[in-house]
Amino acid sequence: MSKHTPVQSVQYRGDHLLLLDQHELPHKMDFIRIETTEQLWNAIHALQVRGAPAIGIAAAFGLSLWANQQKEESDLRTFTHQLKIQRNYLSSARPTAVNLCWALDRVMQSIQYAETVQDAIQLIEIEALTIQREDEATCQQIGEYALSLFQPGDHILTICNPGAIATARYGTALAPFYLAQERGVPLSVYACETRPLLQGSRLTTWELQQAGVDVTLITDNMAAHTIRTKKISAIIVGCDRIAANGDTANKIGTFGLALQAKALGIPFYVASPLSTIDLDTPSGESIPIEERHPEEVTHLAGRRIAPEGIKVYNPAFDVTPHEYISAIITEKGIIFGSYRENLAIIKNQKNLLIS
Ligand SMILES: CSC[C@@H](O)[C@@H](O)C(=O)COP(=O)(O)O
After folding, report:
1. pLDDT higher than 60, residue 352
2. 240 is an active site residue
3. Half-sphere exposure (CA, 13 Å, Cβ side) for 33?
4. Atom of ligand 1 at shortest range from CA of 276
5. pLDDT by residue (tens digit) across 2-24?
6. Which family, according to the similarity comment (predicted)?
7. CA distances (Å), 116 to each of 15, 81, 259, 309, 319, in order?
8. What interface predicted TM-score (ipTM) does this complex get?
9. What domains can you pick out in the chain, each with its CATH number?
10. What is the pTM (predicted TM-score) of this model?
């Protein structure tokens, strides 16, 4: 089987960033050019770049772009103070995915021993490139572990786009399907369309179809029926933040799928890099849930589909309580329960009790 090379959604060019415009997919494959942190903030907020790892990578490069424009600055304290302002600004673009702050903080920490502004500029670029490179290896490893949970011929359901374009490569929850395809292992994916912004129908189907993975699109309200009639053997999803007790925030609709998995007796898996585990957030109740513009619900493809003046509730994420999660699949192993204890162990990279 040939290896498919998916397009890289975040491309750093030193003085600018190219972002695959995820608004335009699957109709057009356009890249937007980013030169300033303001432009990047807008692109993250508008979901032109999206998916927890990808927004972290883009934000890290955003600090590098800004730093590269400070070559005239000679005072390291002033530089660091201004960098922190940029960090705080970018971190406010989206509240739920913890990878955004995680990546920005990694970049901030990378300059703690810098002696000059020139040193700092170089260290920031190295750190941002490292975050991107590591994410590819991380996703591949998540894919290996996730694949070990599936059998050839399995039908697996997913939501949103936890795929290659939401990460440096491979994706999180979609990584096992890329690896299976490379190895000629037959797996079928059912993709929920993921209202309101249709990341499933526009993005997951597009990228899996390009890779030659067998993928079938369903609307979100078809999931329970599909699990029964199409013999779905598992659900696998990505995530935007995992609290210390294992409660997990992911795209709105995920919690409903977890309830369906429990009711219908199939496993519900969460695929997550360690960077998405946030031990400082004790439980799902403390995860900030982004609420977005009502127009995302009242309009479809630019056309109004609801009456003028209707009240709208538009949370972008929901929280799946840990008791509904069969396993959390990370790059360091699979956790099958006792999340509070095991997440702390795995995050601190100690030897695992698990898998
Ligand atoms: C590859 S991680 C997956 C998550 O970030 C993904 O499941 C998700 O919910 C993304 O939501 P989005 O609002 O499109 O950024």
Report:
1. no
2. yes
3. 5
4. 2
5. 567 779 999 999 999 999 999 99
6. Belongs to the EIF-2B alpha/beta/delta subunits family. MtnA subfamily.
7. 20, 14, 54, 56, 44
8. 0.98
9. 10-138 (1.20.120.420), 141-347 (3.40.50.10470)
10. 0.95
Ligand 1 atom at minimum distance from 174 CA: 1
Percent with pLDDT over 90 in the chain: 94
Higher pLDDT, 118 or 3: 118
Site to probe by mutation for ligand 1, drawn from 94, 208, 239, 330 as the one with most ligand atoms within 8 Å of Cβ, is 239
CA of 320 to the centre of ligand 1 (A): 14
